[in-house]
Amino acid sequence: MNINPNNITVKRTARYFINGVDFEKAETVWFLLHGYGQLAENFIKKFQILDDGKTLLAAPEALSRFYTDDIFGKIGASWMTREERENEIEDYVNYLNDIYAGIKKLLNGRNVKLNVFGFSQGTATASRWLQRGNVKAENLVLWGGFLPPDFEIENWNASFNSLFIVTGSRDGYLPPEKLAEGEKVLNEKGVKYSAKIFEGGHEMKESVVNSVLKEFLL
Fold it and tell me: In the CATH scheme, what is the homologous superfamily, with its name and number, of domain 16-216?
């Protein structure tokens, strides 16, 4: 039997969360991209320190939700898998572009500073969006993950002005030794970046988020 794959493009409903900010007063936009198995509503709450009345926080939720336990109690979301990889990347890049375009309308087209934050699986999502979506951030923060292999690092300054990398001392996904390997490449390519290792694992405690953002960006 011959089996031939086929694809169609469909409309679907996605969701994202923003903080309650006066759009006329917003000077900065933060795109906050959660990790594998998380939900955007919970993720955005880790960034209360940024809710200063002048900052719009936008937390898109990945398009594929699933149950994360055996009793169908907890739900998380994933940005992609290796199945239909390129199509899934294109879908979420277009999705994030649409959200960003909508936010610019809310801001009446005003030029504001864009910062992008990705955690875990969200680090690759953030990096690919900036490069493939032709969007440029002032600051890109990658927490518990690194630039994906398909990121064209030679063209980094078309995607962001500054890169900040954060990982835990016991992070199994981006251990300090792997970070050191990545830093070597960044230095070779002339990427403007800073890196921080905190005491902990593959996690985002709000207290650590607060201290890191204060040190780097506030």
Answer: Alpha/Beta hydrolase fold, catalytic domain (3.40.50.1820)
